[in-house]
Structure formats: C-alpha cells, structure tokens
C-alpha cells in the first residue's frame, strides 16, 4: 500500500477556520508534522493543530523558516526535514503536514513534497485547501476582494517594493503578504499610487493579539512579519459597476 503525504491548510491562525475536511485529514493521519523555526518557538500551524489532535501525535520538524539569505543553509534544512518525513512515511504510512493558510499558496509544503517525492518512490501526495489570510482579512475588515471583471493580484513583498508598486499601478485589488518589516516602504508606495486611503492591513487574525487597521494609520513602524495588506481599486458606477 502506498504511503501518503497530505498537506493540510489550517488557515491563518483562528482554530475555527480549519475546514471539516482539514480536521478529518489531521485526525486520520498516523502522524502530524508541523514546521518549526530553528529558533524553536511554537508557530501558528502547531498552535492550531493542537486544538484538534493530541500533542503526542504531533512531530515538530525544523525548516529554518527565518532563513532568507543563506541559500545553502536553507536548502540543507529542507533536505534534513525531507529525510525525516520520508523516514516517518516508511514507518507509519500516512503523514499530514500542517501549514498556515493553504498548502499551495506560498507554503513550505511545496518544498517538502518535492523532496519527499524523490526520497520515497511511489508516495502519494495530496493537499487539503485552507482559508487564506486575505480571505480572513477581507471578512474581518469588510474589504471586497473582487467585483465583476476585476483581477486580483497577490504579491509577496519579500520580492521587493518595486514589484508591489507595479501591481498597484494596474487594475483590480492588490494583496500583499509578508510586508510587515517594510511597512514604511509599503505605505509610501500606496501613497504614490493613490491606494493608501482605501487599503487595510491586518495581523494575528483571529488571535488575542489581532490587529485590523486602515493602511493610512501606518507610520513607518515595522509591523509583524506575517501582516497582510488589501488595497482595493477605486470603484465607481454603483452596484455592479464592474460587470
């Protein structure tokens, strides 16, 4: 019988936003792997998972998620994590990997699946979609992500503020992920493109330290790394004006 690796999206942090299918997948797996920074603190994925499965079923695996510059060190961490998960698959059969948001949207699961696929011939790789931070922020702030024929652009600000500026110069809503450390640059780009007043940002959604605010309140102070920004376009023409 083939071993199975299942990437399970557990949402942006609010335990109530894990889907029924996601909970079932976590509980059905022989072991649930959660990614951990090399600094060792508990991440959002682990905290969310522990609402649904016992701690003895959870295995913490280091992925050096805070490594941005040393490619060799980062890839060594991926290799080590892949080897460890491959060993679990050989011994136990089914492993669920819990990831914040969705396993197919900027997720460590992508790298893990590729590595394990090379180490465990015949492994079946599956994924269970999860609620994304942009969906949760839209719901909590009242921001509308898209209307009619509008496009939706998702930009990781780790790619640079120039990429964000290019996206903001186009039509439709722009969502920015991981912008907290560059909050000052982001606020300036929003101002330059006329998007500041309608934009909203949020962090720690659904958690006690949650913050949801207008982007116009950003003063250049760095924000939490995993902050999310929604910058909708100016909409004219009343109801259905974008159809």
Question: Can you give me a brief rundown of this structure?
Answer:
The chain is α/β, with parallel strands linked by helices and 243 residues long. The chain has seven helices and ten strands. The protein has helices at residues 20-28, 44-49, 71-92, 109-119, 133-141, 161-168, 183-192, and strands at residues 4-9, 31-36, 58-62, 94-99, 124-128, 152-156, 173-177, 200-203, 211-214, 228-231.
Features:
single chain, 243 residues, alpha/beta, five-stranded parallel beta sheet, five-stranded mixed beta sheet, 7 helices, 10 strands, 21% strand, elongated
Radius of gyration: 19 Å
Average pLDDT for all residues: 91
* Structural class by secondary-structure content: alpha/beta
Number of helical stretches of at least 4 residues: 7
Strand content: 15-25%
- Principal-axis shape: elongated
Number of strands: 10
State the low-pLDDT regions, or none: none
- In spatial order, strands of the major sheet run 3-2-4-1-5
Q: What is the helix content?
A: 25-40%
Question: What would you call the quaternary organization?
Answer: single chain
What distance lies between the first and last C-alpha atoms, to the nearest angstrom? 50 Å
Largest sheet, in brief, is:
5 strands, parallel
């Amino acid at each position: 019988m083939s071993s199975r690796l299942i990437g399970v999206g557990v949402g942006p942090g609010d335990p109530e936003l894990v889907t029924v299918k996601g909970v079932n997948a976590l509980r059905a797996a022989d072991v649930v792997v959660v990614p951990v920074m090399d600094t060792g603190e508990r991440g959002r994925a682990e905290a969310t998972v522990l609402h649904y499965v016992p701690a003895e079923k959870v295995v913490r695996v280091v992925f050096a998620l805070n490594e941005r510059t040393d490619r060799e060190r980062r890839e060594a961490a991926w290799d080590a994590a892949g080897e460890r998960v491959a060993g679990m698959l050989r011994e136990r059969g089914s492993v669920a990997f819990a990831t914040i948001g969705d396993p197919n949207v900027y997720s460590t699961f992508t790298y893990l699946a590729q590595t394990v696929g090379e180490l465990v011939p015949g492994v079946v790789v599956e994924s269970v979609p999860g609620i994304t931070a942009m969906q949760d922020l839209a719901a909590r702030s009242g921001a509308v992500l898209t209307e009619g024929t509008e496009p939706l652009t998702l930009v990781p600000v780790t790619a640079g503020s120039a990429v964000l500026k290019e996206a903001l110069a186009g039509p439709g809503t722009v969502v920015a992920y991981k912008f907290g450390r560059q909050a000052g640059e982001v606020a300036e780009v929003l101002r330059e493109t006329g998007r500041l007043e309608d934009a909203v940002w949020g962090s720690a959604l659904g958690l006690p330290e949650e913050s949801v605010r207008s982007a116009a309140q950003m003063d250049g102070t760095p924000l939490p790394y995993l902050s999310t920004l929604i910058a909708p376009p100016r909409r004219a023409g009343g109801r259905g004006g974008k159809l």
